[in-house]
Protein: DNA-binding ferritin-like protein (Dps family)
Organism: Priestia aryabhattai
Amino acid sequence: MLEIFKKMIGDKKEYKMMMARVEALPEDYQFVFKKIQNYMWNFSSGNGMDMLHMQYELIDLFEAGAAEGRQVLEITGDDVASFADELVANAKTYMVKYREDLNQSIKERLGKNKFNQ
C-alpha cells in the first residue's frame, strides 16, 4: 500500500512539473496545449501514462517552436483536431481496447478457426 501511495505522489509531482513547463510557454501555446490535452484525455485508457508521454512530446515540440519564434498554428496546422488525432493514433485508447475486447470475446466463443473464415 505504501508503494502505491509513493507512486501517486511521484506521479502528481511529475504532472506538476510538466504543467510548469506549459505555463512557461507563450499564451497561445498554453491555450492550444490545454485544449489538446483535454481532447486527448477523452481517449485515454488505463492509468493514462500513454497520454502523458505524448503530452511530454507535445511540450517538447511546442517549446522548440516557441524558441524559434513560430506561431503555434504553424506547428499544429489550422485543423488542430486532426493534429491531436495523429498524436493519439498510436496510444492505447479505450476505442482500441473495446475493439480488442470485442474480437477476443468472439474468438473465445466461436473459436479462432470459425472467426477467420
Summary: Helices lie at 2-23, 27-41, 49-67, 72-76, 80-88, 94-110, 112-116. Residues 2-23 form the longest helix (22 residues). The two ends are 48 Å apart (CA to CA).
